[in-house]
Amino acid sequence: MLILTCPVCGVTAEETEFHGGGEAHLTRHGPGSSDDEFQSYLFMRENPRGVHFERWRHVYGCGKWFHAARCTTTLEVFGTYPAQTTEPPKDLRKTISQKRPGWTWRDLT
Amino acid sequence: MSEPVTALGGVSSDARIAAIAEAPLQGMITLRADLSDSAVKKAAKAAAGADVPGPGTVHLGDESGLCWMSPDELLLLCPYAEVTETLERLQKALVKTHALAVNVSDARASFTVTGPRAREVMGKLCPVDFAPDRFAPGMFRRTRMAQVPAAIWMSADETFRIVCFRSQAQYVFDLLTVAAQPGSEVFSDGKTPALA
Ligand SMILES: [Zn+2]
């Protein structure tokens, strides 16, 4: 079972109280972007076995969006952090490095 | 003049492991605003007669109170007959503040679950730890009851109050009566233990 803690209201609950919002930290290429950029924004996603970063919404609770870092094989949640950021916080990346040495995700390590 | 009625006409069901009842009409106002703003705090307190509660808590007076819904949302409870007047006061106090206050009394249904096994009934329906040391009067929780959203608090040691959408009232009442079926007790000693 995937158990998440909402960083907005502090509630810890299993995943059915939340709703997954797909991959985190996408750059939204819109008007003025190249075809390649737009295509990659629409279709290209990570599909990792291991460390992954996602958007989640506390849909049955406070209703707010947030980010989560978790392991796709064990469902271990490394941490959750606010939606208002374009990359995972440093201390969270350090925690992940301790638990999954050598992890990579896009250009993050 | 129309006669306001609750969603299910005040149904109740007693011969169960906990007593289920639809609550009488309740004034409810949704207030969305920056809850750290002192003008908002002041206006909410004046309207509800209670201080703005912190995350996951509720401040209740006799008939009025404030529930913490999210970092930018409160649910104000007041007597049904006073909701129009309370809303006007609140809106007047917030006229210069970026805020939204709406009367949602008739858009909601409300239930009580009462008895020593009320925690067991609620525990069957929500992904929430309802052990006495985890959920107690004064706390407030928005969650899921089976397939619909609900807001839950305890008005006494063995009494839960539930607020749901009015259109889902029958569904929630049916859920509660099934979860409280005679013979469906969960813990032989009637004491809900903590999960972990
Ligand atoms: Zn939340």
Strand order across the largest sheet of chain B: 1-2-8-11-10-9
Q: What helical percentage do the residues of chain B reach? A: 10-25%
- Domain count of chain B: the total is 2
CATH topology of chain A: Folate-binding fold
The name of the CATH superfamily of chain A reads: Folate-binding superfamily
The first-to-last residue Cα distance of chain A is 26 Å
Estimate the mean pLDDT confidence of chain A.
Answer: 96
The number of domains of chain A: 1
Pfam families (chain B): SoxG (PF04268)
Protein name (chain B): Sarcosine oxidase subunit gamma
Protein name (chain A): Sarcosine oxidase subunit delta
Organism (chain A): Roseobacter sinensis
Descriptive account of the structure:
The complex is a heterodimer of chains A (109) and B (196). Chain A is of the alpha+beta class. Chain A has a single domain, classed as 2-Layer Sandwich (Folate-binding fold). Chain A has two helices and six strands; from the N terminus they run βββαβββα. Chain A has a four-stranded antiparallel β-sheet, with helices on one face. Chain A starts with a strand and ends in a 10-residue tail after the last helix. The mean pLDDT of chain A is 96. Chain B has two domains: 86 residues, Gyrase A, domain 2 (2-Layer Sandwich), CATH 3.30.1360.120; 80 residues, 2-Layer Sandwich (Alpha-Beta Plaits). In chain B, a hairpin with a 2-residue loop joins strand 5 and strand 6. The termini of chain B are far apart. Chain B is globular, with a radius of gyration of 17 Å. Chain B has 196 residues and is of the alpha+beta class. The complex binds zinc ion. The site of zinc ion has 8 residues of chain A, from loops.
